[in-house]
Amino acid sequence: MRVQILIFALLCCFCAELSAQGFMGGLGKFTKRKRYWSAGISANTMHYFGDLVPKNRMGSFDMQYTQPNIGIFAQKRILPNISLRLDLAYGNLEGDDHTSSDPSDIEFGCAFRYKRNLHFRNTIYNISMVGIIDLFQNSSLANRRPDHPIPYGLFGISAFYHNPQALLPAGFDGPEW
What we know:
- This protein is mainly beta and 177 residues long.
- The protein has 3 helices and 5 strands.
- The chain has helices spanning 2-12, 97-100, 110-116, and strands spanning 37-46, 67-79, 82-96, 119-134, 152-162.
- The radius of gyration is 24 Å and the shape is elongated.
């Protein structure tokens, strides 16, 4: 908690000026032109961390199961310090005891996870509507950002669809997902 307060206090030091008197304060009025739209794409990674990891400890993961996550968004600035954003995202998660555990490692329980042979794959679709509140007024244009950082907070709602699957073994009418 102390670290969070310290970070917030340091961010407040970056403010060049503040004005509590409307939309003035060197930034000008918040005109219709400043209610801009922006759109973008995101590319990052997703990784499963749980029971199906190489070692039974924090920070243990298998890079071969790191999967891409892609998304698009559209954002509309409504007020000098409030924007709305719609996000759509798609990604995959995977985990497999047989390929990520070492059968000779008894100390960390890997040999037992190797014999357990659990696995899964999961495709995730996500849609979210997010409100963005700038903690300090920002009535700049889309192509001319302020000279100082503006910390912000998020609130919103999200829904997702996923379909986790496991591979049916060959002896049980498989292999099939």
